[in-house]
Structure formats: C-alpha cells, structure tokens
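Marked as duplicate of an earlier ticket. Keeping the data here for the record.
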Amino acid sequence: MRKFFTGLFILLFSIALIGGGALLYIFSKTKQEMPNLQKLISEYKPLEPTSIYDVNGNLISRMFLEDRQPVSISEIPQDLRDAFVAIEDKRFYEHNGVDYLRTGKSVFENVVSGRKAQGGSTITQQLSRNAFLDLNKTYTRKIKEVIIARELEKSFTKDQILEMYLNKINFGQQSYGVKVAAKTYFDKELSDLTLAESAMLAGIPNRPTTYNPMKKLPNAIERMNLVLLMMLKNNFITQAEYDLAKSHKFVYEDEATDLDKSDKNTTIVMQRKRIKRGTIAPEFVDYVTKELMSKFDEDEIKGGGYKVYTTIDLNIQAEAEKALKESKALAKHEDRNGALVSLDPNTGYIKAMVGGRDNKAGDFNRATDARRQPGSSFKPFVYFTALDKGYSINSMVEDSLVTYGNWTPKNYGGGPVEPRYVTLLEAIKKSLNTVAVKIANEVGIDAVIERAKLAGIESPIPSVLSVALGSNEVTPLELARGYATFANGGYNVKPIAITKVTDRDGNILYENKIERKLVFNPKKVAEIVYMMVQVVNSGTGTSARAYYNKQQVAIAGKTGTTNDSRSAWFAGFSPDLVTTIYVGKDNNKPMSGGTTGGNDVAPIFGKYYNSIISNGYYKPTMTFAFVRNINLGIGNTLVTELIDPVTGLPITSGAGTEVQIKREDMAAEKAETYNNGLEGFFDDSSKTTTNDTTKPKTETKPKEEKKQKSADKQKQDDIEKTLDDIFN
C-alpha cells in the first residue's frame, strides 16, 4: 500500500511538473509572440469621442464609437470606487495583477463544469482584456490577459489602473466610463451620486443588458443589493449605511410624482438617453461633420478624442431657431419650411445655421442644400453691375412695359404700368421688375452673372435675361456669401464653420485660415450698399429694421418673392453680420395667402436681429464705415444731394429724394436725353429712333403735356449758355 501511494505521489508530481513546465513553455512562447508590451502600454490611448464646441467654448455635440468622457480618479466618489472593488476584485489593492487563489478556483469550477474559462479576472485583467485584447473566450487570450496584467502593474499605480478601468468599462446604452453612465441612467454628475446609485452603477458592467436600469430596473436593484452586501462584508460601509442604501427608492421618470422628484432618498431613473448627437444646432453639426469626414478617417474622428472648435454662437443660434420657427410664415403653416444662415462678412465665420423648422440631425439641410429661386433678392447684383459700368445711383430709367421676344416682365401685382422715369435708387427700393430687366439688358446679363460668381455664387446661372429677376437658383448660404461681398466692401470671403481641430494633447491637426480676396471696387460697393440701406429705411424691407440703444442700426438688404409665392426671401446685413432667410414648401409649390419677402420674411430678420441685440449676444456696428468715409479719389467722396424724383436733377428744397452720388458725376437726367446728340442733351422730350431690331419694343404712352413756362425759359437759358461755352 505504501508503494502504491508513493507511486501515485510520484505520478501526480510528475504530471504537475510536466504540466507546470508545459504551462511555463506556453506562457514563454505566448509572451515572445506578443508585441513589445512596454511600448504597447505606454502608447495606449482609449477610444474617446470627438467634442465639438461653439465659439464660446460650449459643448455642441460629440461624435463617438464609444460615448465616453474620461475623468481623473479624484473626480470619482470613493463610494463608487469601493463598490467596484467590492464586487469585481476585493483583493485589488493586495495582488500584483492576478489573484491566483480566485483564478485557481475559477479554473477548477470551469474544468468540473466543462465550460471554457470565465470569471476570476481581476480589475487589472479586465482592463488588459478591454484595452488590448479581443473578447473571445479562449485559454490563449486568458494567458495573454495575465501577461499584460502583470506588465500593467509594473507600469502604473493601483489608482491609475482603477482610473483607466472606470473610464474604459462598458455600461450599455453606448455609454462607456462612469461619468457617462451616471448621466445616462440618473442624469447626474459623479459628485452627486448616492451610495445606492454608486452600487447600482457598479453592478451593471457584469451584464449590461441584464442589469440595465432603463430596461430592467428590478434586475438592477437585485444586483445593487448584492454589491451593497459585498461592500458591507468587506468593510467598505457600515451596517447603518447598508440599511439606508437598501431602502433607497428608484422610480422611472415617467412614473415619478412631484414628491419623488423632491425626495433625496428617491432616484429618478432615465428611460431615454439624454445626450444625443445633433440635438443642438443639428444642421450645423451635420455640416461640420461632413467637413471632418473629408479631412479625417471616420474611426479617427469618432475615437480619437479630438476637439473641434467652430464658429457658431449657440446664443445667436437659439434666437435664429426661435425667430424662424415662431414666425407667422411658418407657425400657422405646417406644410412650409425654411432656412436661416448668418455669417460674419469680415471673416466668413458662420454664426448661426438653421436648416429647417424641426431641428433634427440628419434632416435635409435647407441652409446649404436647398437650391431655390432668389427672386428680387438677386437684383443687387444687377444694380451693382450697372454702377460698376458707369451708372449712378440717381441715373434715370423709364419704368414701363417692355417686350423681349415673347416675354414682357411686369412689376409685382401684374397691373398696368404708367410710363415714368425713376432713379436706380427708387427702382431698387420699390423692387421694380421692369427697370431691373432693362438695366440687365443694357449692361449685359453675362456681366451680371460674372459679378455674382465673383461674389461667391457657385450654383449654375443660365445666361438668360430673366436672371435679373432671380430666376436662377441659389442656396441660402451662397446668397449670404454673395451679400457678404457687399457688406465688407468688395471682398469675397470663404464661409468657415471650423476654426481648428486638435488632438487629445492639444496639437493642432487642422486649421482654417480666413480667406479674403478683393473682387469689387470698394467705391462701387459703397454705392450699392447705400441703395440697399434705403430699401430697409423706406423701401420693401422696412420690417427688417433693427435698433441698439434706441438708435437705428445700419441694415442693408433686399426682399425677394418668386412667381406664385413659391419662395420668399429676405437677405440683409449690418456691417458685421450677414443673414439670409428663405421660406417655402419643400415640394416648391405656391404658398397661400400671397406670402412675400417684404411682408413675411423681413419681419423674421427684424425680430432675430433685435433679439440678439437686446439679449446682449450681438453688439452691432452702427454704420458702414466704408460707405461713410470711402475716398473715391481727390475730392471725389460720396455726397448727399436732394434730387427731383422725375428728372434726377439736384434741387434745394421740395418733394425730393435724398441720394448719395460721387462729386465728379454730373447730375443724372433721363436716359433718353442724350440719344439725339446736342439737341437731345437739352431736350428730355426727345424720342429714340433706331433701326436696331434687337432693341426691345417700348410701349409708347402720352407724356405729360403741361410745361411750366419758367422751366422752359430756364432750359433755353441753359442752351444758350452752353453754346456760348462751346463755340466762344
């Protein structure tokens, strides 16, 4: 018998020796096959979401593969740390990365049960697995887990390991790390967690689906009680603390009473995740995301912990959303939608972007993608071209029906037009279609298109005369860029949404520089801006006026309404903020009620600007300095004169119109005055005769026959004086 036991001992010892040797060989071989562990560990960076911030440093959104917000160990409450140690690894502060007693017990149970190795992992081993290995349950992975755990313990302190673990672990609901988990399930900051809440959070990672408080609160409470019991047994809490925590009440938010909400011993459990991508400024976030995806790999963006600094101001954005959504143009018409975009004309920085009334991420962004006819809001490009080619603000053009081929453009309302002469200023103020088309025909529609392109309009523009009335298509962002060229004195400026992107260490990975290029003569820009200011002061855009300290801010702009009210616009600007607003149906069908840019959209602009001014979000520059002070050459500054609205000649008093003109310009008269040479120079009643069949046919109507004798005498005196000057 003695020989039997001796033999059995030798056999078992040999098996153990051979097994141990085999195990050591496997460990050694596995370690050799693994990459440089010290380098792997030192370079380890957990997946972190990319955060997007507004111009004031406010968080707008986060992009993530794993929703995570890392925190330091000092920010994690002691109760929460103790809860995890108690339930996951009670000898955490005693072992060197592997709890051999617990591992041996686990292996024995798995061998007896015939299942693959599971359980028994320390917090350090779990971190090893989650950070560096896959989740396949194999013995090889278990060996690697142990090897990495030992290396982690050599490289980091216990608190550092616990910090990494608590920031890495999965809590379900796309929530990783304790900070996000506390927000997800209880809508609380870590510092506000109770002992019971800490115990519940510690119980989730074992089986996130089974112990999810949002979905299975009874299971979560049962698991919490086990965590509390383990904390009590391991002296992390007292009996009194245990009893109080067990009595803590948890209730779903939809079932919570007012008493529940005010009771400190009751926790309201969320039933939906509070922080969702794109709930703030969603279209702007989508716009930024599109740019990021064009510059970086998607996994980099969603896991690299980048910081994206943008140009948007959430305070201004909120007022923009409110002004559009609550406007009479949309509030009572569910079938309508719209867009609003604001940018700084001097930098191109986008300050607000509203792509629709519902503000949902992934929706169609009308601010950047909706191409619609701008109507009369395109006319400033026509009048600017005229000014650029020699017309003056007070040049006179006949407002009358003209036929071009089979097309006879009419003014708004479609009624008959009595021929009359108006200045360019009067024409843009009253948005006269007949004059805009005549001007475009005279200067050439291709010249108008050329300047629109120089200003930043990128959408195709057909070379047809109806473009003078905005028959082409643009996006609100394009039109804002085009108007910015007027607002800043002639510079095409690139719209910018992102100023820079940094990595988690603060290194700049991508940066947008301000791009400005002078494309227009500032002298000519000053004139068109002056005309557009008058549109707001006394034209179709009076509802867009804005005030600061009870003084009117310089606002320039233009209304726009397309045929059958399919689209209504107001585009305008102060010296440092350009805004375009569009309203229409997504199917581009007519809007009911005679919706117009002046009556329905300009008021949105006015409400929006007055709101951001009165709330202190925007301090406007009161005047356009380049319009007031621009030097047009020696002694050739803009001057204000009172002119006769009929002849365009300067007058000293009476019912006239104030305009700004260049000093070197002769006072304007009717365009037809000069058609018949010297005689016509003095005879504004002369008629144009031409054999050019390409010229438009003008409806001829009787002109005013009554002439004042004093005016006739003055004209004769002017003729005689001029002849004397010429021939003597």
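See parent ticket for discussion. The longest strand covers residues 567-574.
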